[in-house]
Amino acid sequence: MAKKISIGATAAITALCCLATFQGSYLFLQNKFEQKYIDNALLSTGMSASSGVGNSVSLQLGGSSDSKDFLTRVTNKLAEVDSLYRNYYIGDMDDERLIDSVIAGYVMGTGDDYAAYYNKEGFESLIQDLEGEMAGIGVNVIYNTDYRLIEILSVTEGSPADKAGVMPGDLVVTVGEEKESVAELGYQPSINKLRGEIGTTAVFSVLRGENYSETVEFAIIRDKITEQTVMHHVYGPDKTIGVIKISGFDAKTPVQFVDSVETLQKEGCDKLIIDLRYNPGGELSSIVTTLDYILPSGPIIRIFDADGKEVKKYTSEATELKMPMAVVVNSSTASAAELFTSAVRDYDKATIVGETTYGKGCMQTTVPLSDNSAVSITYRMYSPPFSENYHGIGIVPDVEVKLDEALLTKNIYKITDEEDNQLAAAAATFYD
User: Fold this and answer.
1) What 3-state class would DSSP assign to 23?
2) What residues form DSSP beta bridges with 365?
C-alpha cells in the first residue's frame, strides 16, 4: 500500500472532509474550511466570539439543566479516577496529554463519525494545510514498496528541492545527519525527519540512475512551499486529450486547475479527463471556485440544516468551460470530490467513469477553543445543484469500470496511461 504526501492563515470554520479508507496512493485532507473569519463562522453556528489575538475565542454557550447534570456527573467521576491514579499509579502522568485525551474521548463518544479534536499543534497544522502552504523542501513522495524507500513523485518548480537538483524518480535511502536507513527506520518516521521549520536543513541521500547505482547527497534549507494538488499531462494514447489529476481541494487548487487547463489547451488538447481517484475532498470555497470556472450560471451546492431546511446556496456565474470532459472516480473519491463529480453530471458537462464513490454528504464546523485547540462537529448536510444527497450511498458512475486486478497492487501514480483501463474507458466516452 502506498501513500502520497507533501513534505512540508487565516482561521476558518466550515469543512467538507472525509475519513475514507486508504487504497493505494492517497493524499489525506481532513477537515478543510469554508469561511475565512472566525466571527462569521461562529455566528453561523449560533455562538458568539470576542475579538482577541490569534485564534483565541470566547464562546457564549447556553446550558440546559440536563447539560449541567451531565457535566456534574462527568466532573465527579473524572475526579474519582484522577484521585485513584495519582495515589496508586507507579508511572508518570502528563497533565496536558490527559486533558487532550479526555476531550478526544468525549468527541469520539458522541458517535459523530466525522468529528475531531485538535490540540494546539494539530490545529496550527490544519490551518497551514488550509492555505495550501507549509514549510518543506517542495517534493511530493510515495512509498516504494519494492525497495522499501521513499520515492520522489514530483518536485515543485522553483522550490528548494528543485534548485538543489532533486529529481522525480529519486529514491530517498537515508535521512538525517546520522544517515539513518529509510528501509530500517520506516516510512512515517523517515517522513518526519524530512519535515521541519523554515530555515532549518533537511539532510538526506537518494539513489538514482540505471539500477539506482548512483548516490547523491543533499542538505536543503526548508522554506515556505505551496502544496501542489493539481497535476496534468497529455494522455499518451491520444494527444488531443489532457489528463488533470486533482489530489485534494485547498486554497491553491482553483488557480492550479485553471493553469493546467490552459497549459493543456496550448499543447493541443481539446478534451479533458479529470482524475479524482483517491481524492478525499477539501475546502468548500476551493471546490466552489473550481466548479464556478467549469459550470454555467446556476446553483453549485445547496446546504441544509438538521431539520432539512435549505440555509445556504452557492451559485456559478455565466462563464463556463466548454470542453468535452470525463471524470474518473473510485471508492475513495469522497466529499468535495463527490460534489465536483455530481455537479458536472447535473449540468451534463461530463461523463462519470469508474467505481461507486465513498458517499459523504455532510459538513463539519470546526470551532477554535480558548486555548487555541479546536473541535470539529458535523452540523450540516449538503446536496449537488439538482440531484439528491449521496451521503451513505455514493455516486454510481455512468460507465462502471473496475481497475484491472493486475493493477490493484501498483501505486496509482506509477500506472502508465497505456496500462490504466479506467483512463482508457474515460477516453472512449469522447468517441461513443
Assistant:
1) coil
2) 14, 377
- Nearest Cα neighbor of 364 from 308, 282, 301 is 282
Contact 332, 21 (CB under 8 A): yes
Is the pLDDT confidence value at 214 over 90? Answer: yes
Burial (CB count within 10 angstroms: exposed 0-12, middle 13-18, buried 19+), residue 278: buried
Q: How far is it, in rounded angstroms, from Cα 270 to Cα 239?
A: 9
The helix (run of H) or strand (run of E) holding residue 14 is strand 14-15
Pairing state between β 298-304 and 230-234: unpaired
3-state secondary structure of 276: coil
Report, in this order, helix, strand and coil percent for the chain, each rounded to 5: 30, 25, 45
- Three-state secondary structure call for residue 166: coil
The full length of the chain comes to 432
Q: How far is CA 86 from CA 74, 79, 83, in A?
A: 18, 10, 5
Instruction: Please state the pTM of the whole predicted model.
Output: 0.75
Question: Cα–Cα distance between 122 and 140 in angstroms, integer?
Answer: 21
Model confidence at 246, in pLDDT bands (50, 70, 90)?
A: very high
| Pairing label, strands 241-246, 271-275 | parallel
For residues 221 and 194, the answer to whether their CB atoms sit within 8 Å is no
CB 401 within 8 A of CB 353: yes
DSSP H or E stretch at residue 372: none
